[in-house]
Amino acid sequence: MSRPDERIPVSSRPVQTPIERSGARGPGAASRTLAGFIFASRWLQAPLYLGLIIAQAVYVVLFFVELWHLIEKSVIKGKFTETEVMLSVLALIDIVMIANLLIMVIIGGYETFVSKIRVDGHHDEPDWLSHVNANLLKVKLAISIISISSIHLLKTFIEVGRMDGGLVKNGKNVIYSNDGVMWEVIIHLAFIVSALALAWIDKMSHHAEPAKAHAPAHAPAPVLAYAVAPAGLADAAAAPAPAGAAVAADAVDADGYVTVRVPAGTVLPEGAQRIG
User: Fold this and answer.
1) Hey, which of 106-115, 123-132, 204-213, 266-275 has the most confident mean pLDDT?
2) Distance between CA atoms of 275 and 10, rounded to whole angstroms?
3) Which long-range contacts (CB under 8 A, 24 or more apart) does 39-43 make?
4) Is the full-model pTM beyond 0.70?
5) 10 Å Cβ neighbour count for 258?
């Protein structure tokens, strides 16, 4: 029988735990093939994003055509009034806004629904790309649409300054009317309400994360004490510690034992005693 103060070393052999085998069968070859085919179908969206890139190139050409018309009529020929210059500039801003919308749809959609864009650490990586998801993409698209609608609404407000009899005409063609302006305002307000609703839904989805996401991922590791005589402390310090072990600076007690924290399941070295 051992003395009360005697420390009994435990065996360094790992404990053999019986393996419990599940009776359920895994997916068959046909199921795996079908799942792989369905997963690969996401690449059908890739040509759509390539088409949007071509559409963006068309907008680039259109931008420079509009810019040349602005320079020609306002600077070279001097035919543009200040209001017409403002409308032309708003048209250029409108094109830029649509190009920004295309970029968000192309990059964000590809990143979310097709494949990861591996540009980690690139100095030109957009800030929003590192945390893009479907909800964030919807909110950003809604904000872009509101910006585009605001530009169109501003152009309308400039044009209605020359309204006569509730109509703005260009020759015989009616450009704006009272009812048309009213519906533009209503549609713009509908865009704003939709964006607020999407932002609220995105915020609620973040608050609805399960509490287990904030729980500690691992149980605290057990504490082991190495039974080392005071005369052998130097040899013990030179011996390799188990993987994941952490030794406190003041862990050596008066009897020459070293307290070490190791991950759960670590095989105990010869002469170690579990104390916690």
Assistant:
1) 106-115
2) 11
3) 42/113, 42/114, 42/115, 43/114, 43/115
4) no
5) 19
Give the contacts of 271 (CB within 8 A, at least 6 positions apart).
9, 226, 227, 228
Amino acid of residue 164: D
Residue 234: Cβ within 10 Å count? 8
- Strands (E) located in the chain: 167-170, 173-177, 223-227, 246-252, 257-261, 272-274
Asked if pLDDT for residue 224 goes beyond 60, the answer is no
Is the Cβ–Cβ distance between 129 and 107 less than 8 Å?
yes
Q: Which residues, at least 6 apart from 153, have a Cβ–Cβ distance to it below 8 Å? A: 184, 185, 188
Distance separating alpha carbons of residues 21 and 19, to the nearest angstrom: 6
- CA-CA distance, 138 to 144, in Å (whole number)? 10
In the numeric block, which tokens belong to residue 170?
Answer: 């260009």
- SS3 (DSSP) at 37: helix
Contact call for residues 247 and 258 (beta carbons, < 8 A) = yes
Residues 257 and 272 sit within 8 Å (Cβ to Cβ): no
- For residues 168 and 160, the answer to whether their CB atoms sit within 8 Å is yes
